[in-house]
Amino acid sequence: MNTLAQAGEDRWKLPQHAYVVVYDERETELLTIYDCGAAQKPPSAQVLGNLVRVKPDHELENTVTGYVVRMREESILEKQDDDHWIIVGEE
């Protein structure tokens, strides 16, 4: 399940109000990506791996099972290797 727009090899566009819900109760995190938290739609993507960095403007909320990253600007989800992801600003 990945309906995010491709932004290059191993790179996907995240909308301005994207939510990334990170479940970190396991060795490898589960990232569930929503286009917008208020839209009440199913997730746009789910990926396994650790989110190691978020560079663009965002808000972070800790939860019982991990944390939620609420993006404040359009950005790119970029795969670093098999187990690591970062979110960078659009170029």
Plain-language structure description:
The protein has strands at 6-8, 11-14, 19-23, 30-34, 45-48, 50-54, 58-62, 66-71, 75-81, 84-89. It has 91 residues and is an all-beta fold. The strands form two sheets. Strands 1-2-9-10-6 form a five-stranded mixed β-sheet, with no helix packed on it. A five-stranded antiparallel β-sheet has the order 5-4-3-8-7, with no helix packed on it. The protein is globular and about 35 Å long. The termini are far apart.
Q: So what's the overall shape? A: globular
Gyration radius, in Å? 12 Å
Distance, first to last CA: 25 Å
The chain-level structural class is: mainly beta
Strand content: over 45%
Relative helix content: under 10%
Largest sheet: 5 strands, mixed
| Uncertain parts | none
- Beta-strand segment tally: 10
User: How confident overall, as mean pLDDT?
Assistant: 92
How many domains would you count in the coordinates?
Answer: 1
Count of helical regions: 0
Report strand order across the widest sheet.
1-2-9-10-6
Summary keywords:
5-stranded antiparallel beta sheet, 0% helix, 91 residues, 5-stranded mixed beta sheet, mainly beta
List the helices and strands and how they pair.
Layout lengths: L5 E3 L2 E4 L4 E5 L6 E5 L10 E4 L1 E5 L3 E5 L3 E6 L3 E7 L2 E6 L2
Parallel strand pairs: 6-10
Antiparallel strand pairs: 1-2, 2-9, 3-4, 3-8, 4-5, 7-8, 9-10
In brief, what are we looking at here?
This protein has 91 residues and is mainly β. The chain has one domain. The chain has no helices and ten strands.
